[in-house]
Amino acid sequence: MSSVAARVKGSLGVRKIGAIYVWIVLIAFFSLVNSTFYEYATFTQVLNQYAITGLVAMGLLLPLAAGLYDLSVGAVLGLSSMTAAWVLVNVTTNVFVAVLAGVAAALIVGVLNSVVLLVLRVDSFIGTLATSSIVTAAVVALSGDNVIAFEVFGDYGTWLGIHNIIGLTMPVGLLLIAILVIAYLLERTGYGRRLYAIGYEEEVARLSGIRVDRMRAGSLLASSALAGLAGTLAAAAVGAGDPTVGPEYLLPAFAAVFLGATQFRNGRFNPWGAAVAVLLLGTGNVGLILIGAPTWTPNIFSGALLILAVALTHGGRGGKRALKKQISEGSADAGAAEPAKVG
Amino acid sequence: MVLAVNGLGKQFDGKWVLEDVSITFEPGRIHGLVGHNGSGKSTLIKILAGYHDASAGEVTLDGRPINNAGPAAIRDLGIRFVHQDLGLISEFTAMENLGIGGVFSQQSGRSIDWKKQALRLQSVIDGFGSEVPLDVAVGKLSAVQRSLIAIARAVEVGDGGGSPARFLVLDEPTTALEGPEVEVLFGVIRALAESGIGVIYVSHNLRDVIELATSISVLRNGELVNTFFDRKASYESLLTAMLGEHLVSDETPNLDAFAVSRLQAQGGASSARLTVRGLRSSLLRGVDLDLYPGECVCVMGLSGSGREELIYALAGSTPSLSTSMTLNGAAIDALSPLTWHEQKIALVPGNRMPGSSVKEFTMRENLSLVSLDQLRLGFRQLDRKAETSMVERWASRLEILPADPEYGTRNLSGGNRQKVILAKWLQADPTTLFIDEPTAGVDVGAAHKLLTELRQIVGEGRTLLVTTSEVGDVLAVADRVLILHEGRVSQELVRGRDEFTESSLLLAMNQNIGEATTMTSSTGGTK
Ligand SMILES: Nc1ncnc2c1ncn2[C@@H]1O[C@H](COP(=O)(O)OP(=O)(O)OP(=O)(O)O)[C@@H](O)[C@H]1O
Ligand SMILES: [Mg+2]
């Protein structure tokens, strides 16, 4: 058993909170290169811009914890931004109604995903890739591939994009709430424990009487809902519904969740890690723009971060050694000896 | 050709789990390796296999250090392993499996020379004096046949260079084999030793080890206590060496007197907790069961008899059908893991089955998984303090080591993981438990503890249905024994009514072996 000192040391190690160290290095680097970087305004800019990515990431945590990919969140985000904009232009300028309409549209995709993955039993990676493609195409068809612009400085844009407290806008507040709620669910309740059990070892969950499909459906609906909420906020930020806005959030959100999994919780998908990863991502991207790097550099940064994150989660913890360990565990002692059981 | 470990040590997270161990393994000898759960046996073997690096000391072959050679090179040196799970792919035939762990015969064009392949494997299997079909998916074969294939693959020479097998390491090879099947395996192991191969045999079954091995090394808490040479080990001396002062009491509860009175009380089927008629599955051909409160029923049978499938079929985790089923007197359609919360019937899968534990979870998280509702505070919050103390209670009750609730399940030794799995279900307080091989991989002391625990919960009025291949377990806990043969109950032995001894149980099973279609020869035969 490790002593208290060893545990404290362990929890501050590069392996546990490496992203925080990288974040500090990034801040130092950008501050040195550009004297206008190290300011409160930069901080709020990062948060305000990346809160939307953060919301998508928080939603993704749930299906990923349950062992499912949800690649449709980008398309869902586009759909809900279009729905909210359409409602604003054609139905009512009421902020709540527009947001609810966006989230409701997103939930329809959540239901679709649940049917495809849990009723038709399509693999989640392929299944959500497919629904994503269908949703994107449907949005383009219905909108005639036009953006739906509305009055940026109307109630909607003002409430969701401009009003702020100490420089922080509504999306940041919503993200904060989402982090707390998801953290509570995943780490403090039986619900979260069961969800993780499903993701790690479906058969254990099933034999433990956990309603695997029902919980997975819930996680898919939740991730769609949060992506939908993010979409309505994305519309507010630019004053328009844009059918093509989705993909630009998909990759960063995945990068954040996977990098986040390497932080704090030994490879487990968790909201705190994802939040730090979003900060890291935002700081890097905003910083690159501020120091005048070309506009394509942020994408490279996100992509590289995603690779790094996944390498750390899967190959990581000692590379070859970890692999060797896996092999020996898989066979030497813990392996699954299946008696001739025919399904 | 001598394989030796000298001053071998291994450290995990600053803790020594193997310290200064020196053992010499000689060719042509069977060397037993025993020790309590977590004593370091598997770690030692993983170092031999090149999966772990030693933290101290070295492994030598004829005095040459080989501990940094890596798994492939170690195979080429002629040191071969049959791990507990055998490492066979069920959907592949024996020959195809040979290509995975062994070396395929390759023609010049690098395509596989199936003919040559078949000849090679056939010649090895022939040497075992047993018949094993090589062109059938391994999953369809019996457990012994699969063990033999795994051994054949390990000792197979391979024609792409490399040396012939010199040492064969077997980790708990008799798991899930019933008495008569064990004898077949032993015959093969002895024949291999006679042909000059050094065998290292890891097992918790001390009687098996004593019967088979000429030398036996005992590990305790990572240290070598003693090596007994020339068959000088007795059961008692091994037990003392293994467990130290911590001796197991030999008293078994007197179930016989109790059994008679219970038999009389049982009477009509109206009092049965669970009745099943005509249970069918891929291996079962119509099994009838009546299970009563306060009794423990053990199910035995050779592999392929349906023994390995019964509780899974019953609990509805494997596709099955039955003509009728009643639970507490009321007719039900079928059982399902989903309804266990209402029906309080727990399915406890074997240690090595998929579905037994989440490797990525801590001991605490695995243990509480079915009892989370007992730990609920307001707003569905989990009571972490209560959870931790619950796990600590079980850890001390079943002597789980290390007794750290935050210990990763992945890092627990096999036997300790088994204790966690049992504790998980016992904590959930079911009225009926279906348990698969409760003591597989558990050391003698711990097995005694587990069995006592099981007997106690039966005394509380619970119903137990246990499938096992350990006759000792059956004698310790069973009120009734059902012998399965070809998917049906061929015999029922009732304690207090029938003769209930090791020999009577083995006899009941042996009656089937003559006619068993899956096994054509039961003698290993020496060359
Ligand atoms: N990868 C690992 N990381 C940390 N600790 C480990 C690891 N593997 C094993 N251990 C610890 O090392 C000790 C020895 O484990 P090992 O698996 O060698 O025991 P064993 O003798 O095989 O026991 P069993 O009879 O239960 O299989 C145990 O305390 C175990 O928890
Ligand atoms: Mg072991």
TrEMBL record, chain A:
UniProt keyword annotation of Cell inner membrane present: yes
Annotated transmembrane regions: 20-41, 47-64, 71-89, 95-118, 125-144, 164-186, 217-237, 249-265, 272-293, 299-316
GO cellular component terms listed in the entry, alphabetical order: plasma membrane
InterPro entries xref list: ABC_transp_permease
UniProt topology in membrane: Multi-pass membrane protein
Subcellular location: Cell membrane
UniProt keyword annotations, A-Z: Cell inner membrane, Cell membrane, Membrane, Transmembrane, Transmembrane helix, Transport
Keyword RNA-binding: no
GO molecular function, one term: transmembrane transporter activity
Annotated Pfam families: BPD_transp_2
Main location: membrane
Name of the protein described by the UniProt record: Unannotated protein
UniProtKB/TrEMBL annotation, chain B:
SUPFAM superfamilies per the UniProt record, alphabetical: P-loop containing nucleoside triphosphate hydrolases (SSF52540)
Gene3D superfamilies: P-loop containing nucleotide triphosphate hydrolases
GO MF assignments: ATP binding; ATP hydrolysis activity
Domain (ABC transporter) ranges: 3-511
Repeat listed as a keyword: yes
Any Pfam family the entry gives: ABC_tran
Name listed for the protein in its UniProt record: Unannotated protein
Keywords for this protein: ATP-binding, Nucleotide-binding, Repeat, Transport
PANTHER family in the cross-refs: CARBOHYDRATE TRANSPORT ATP-BINDING PROTEIN MG119-RELATED, GALACTOFURANOSE TRANSPORTER ATP-BINDING PROTEIN YTFR
